[in-house]
Amino acid sequence: MPLVTMTELLKKAEEGKYAVGAFNCNNMEIIQAIVAAAEAEQAPVIIQASQGAIKYAGLDYISGMVKIAAENTDVPICLHIDHGTDFQQVMGCIRKGFTSVMIDGSKLALEENIALTNKVLDVARAVGVSVEAELGKIGGTEDDVTVTEREAALTDPEEAKTFVEATGVDAIAIAIGTAHGQYKGEPKLDFDRLKRVRELVDVPIVLHGSSGVPGDAIVKAIELGVRKVNIDTNLREAFVNRARQVMAEKPNEIDPRKILGPAREAMTEVIREKIRLFGSSQKAFS
């Protein structure tokens, strides 16, 4: 089926009180793993490409492979740029057929973030593309986007209200204690802050840096209004760990398919677990 927008998927998630998994891709095997998991669970999914993924694989390859994947399945798939910080890059993704974009102006002052987001919205609205924005700084590293612990700041609920009212953005990523990359300890989410943001804004909330967050915390965040959950690090871990295992067991193996195939299968299983955790299993056609 054709690619769908993030707005379409998150509207149904809000109605059903579940979250849609947003999984980062870097190559063909990862895209295949995401789609295989979505088909097995009959779940909607968002396939994301970060700046690093676009630099590695190329925008044409990413958009082309995801479009082919969508055309050959009946589960709804959205193609989304994750943490787009450059206006021209985001426009390039829209031109290549992305159905959703994230403009990340979280390092800017509030008014500058609003202005940048509205600049993207002016174009995206005209062509039916969804827009996610970010308010507050999520710690850690997401490919080429780094926020130090010192810089990281939790989202101010009142600023979130001001931001959403000034933009009308389709979804907002907020900082409530998660971080990109691997955690050094167990993250502690600020659920009171999340609850307050939910009370003040009427758009879907996005949780970034969700790999490594305990399952019960994810479930509680969804109960409090999170409708999109981003997962990347857990996918990389599953893929690379299985590939390493195969190479250790078969040091003379030179067929990439016999290394990447099992890695793809391991990633598929992790994605299926996440989909069930998010409550989106069997929601592809509801």
Key words describing this protein structure:
286 residues, eight-stranded parallel beta barrel, three-stranded mixed β-sheet, alpha/beta, single chain
Short note summarizing the structure:
The protein is an alpha/beta fold and 286 residues long. 50% of the residues lie in helices and 18% in strands. α7 (157-167) runs parallel beside α8 and α10 runs antiparallel to α11.
Describe the structure.
This protein has eleven helices and eleven strands. The strands form two sheets. The protein has an eight-stranded parallel β-barrel, surrounded by ten helices. A three-stranded mixed β-sheet has the order 7-6-9, with no helix packed on it. The two termini are 16 Å apart. It has one domain (6-278): Alpha-Beta Barrel (TIM Barrel), CATH 3.20.20.70. By secondary structure, it is α/β, with parallel strands linked by helices. The protein has helices at 6-16, 28-41, 51-57, 59-71, 87-95, 110-127, 157-167, 191-200, 215-223, 233-249, 256-278, and strands spanning 20-24, 45-50, 77-84, 100-103, 130-135, 139-142, 145-147, 171-174, 179-180, 205-207, 226-231. Helix 3 crosses helix 4 and helix 7 (157-167) runs parallel beside helix 8 (191-200). The longest helix is centred in the last third of the chain and has 23 residues, at 256-278.
